[in-house]
């Protein structure tokens, strides 16, 4: 689960196909991949000109278009990507909703189960509590999705 830049990290982990830890201990028997993702207003596309500072912070000053493409989560979705729940506000000016839509398109293209919720208001303030307007429903929707997907009991 992650929000904003944390949503980017959660999406990267969920779309990683190789265990990069290199640690040969008893935990190697446990899958490094999450069973599901919950992304809230996630930064997805590092090549988006509106989020150049985020790309610089993640990749460093000397980033290239190839690096930005490699770490843009929409380019990493495969049929092995775990199910995903996405929440976004249409009026989010910090991470525009097209980031979530790009990831949704990748999920759909690869037939990955997902639940997508685009609320009209909420800006970049959707969180665990005190959510504006109808965005306050996201936790109940997420709980219902987790139950429906048999990810929790």
Write the layout of secondary structure elements.
Blueprint: E1 2-3, H1 5-15, E2 37-40, H2 52-59, H3 65-70, E3 84-89, H4 98-109, E4 114-119, H5 138-148
Parallel strand pairs: 1-2, 2-3, 3-4
Q: What are the main properties of this structure?
A:
153 residues, alpha/beta, 4 strands
Describe the overall structure.
This protein has helices at about 5-15, 50-60, 65-70, 100-110, 140-150, and strands spanning about 1-5, 35-40, 85-90, 115-120. The radius of gyration is 16 Å and the shape is globular. Strand 3, helix 4 and strand 4 form a beta-alpha-beta unit. About 30% of the residues are buried. The longest helix has 12 residues, at about 100-110. The protein has about 150 residues and is of the alpha/beta class.
Concise account of the structure shown:
With 153 residues, the chain is of the alpha/beta class. It has helices at 5-15, 52-59, 65-70, 98-109, 138-148, and strands spanning 2-3, 37-40, 84-89, 114-119.
């Amino acid at each position: 689960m992650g929000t904003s830049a944390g949503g980017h990290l959660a999406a990267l982990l969920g779309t990683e196909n190789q265990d990069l830890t290199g640690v040969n201990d008893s935990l190697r028997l446990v899958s490094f991949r999450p069973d599901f993702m919950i992304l809230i207003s996630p930064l997805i596309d590092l090549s988006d000109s509106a989020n150049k500072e985020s790309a610089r912070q993640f990749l460093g000053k000397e980033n290239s278009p190839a690096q930005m493409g490699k770490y843009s989560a929409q380019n990493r979705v495969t049929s092995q990507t775990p199910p995903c729940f996405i929440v976004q506000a249409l009026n989010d000016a910090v991470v525009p909703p097209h980031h979530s839509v790009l990831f949704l398109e990748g999920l759909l293209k690869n037939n990955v189960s997902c639940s997508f919720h685009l609320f009209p208001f909420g800006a970049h303030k959707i969180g665990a509590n005190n959510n504006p307007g109808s965005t306050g429903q996201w936790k109940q929707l997420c709980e219902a999705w987790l139950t429906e997907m048999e990810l929790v009991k």
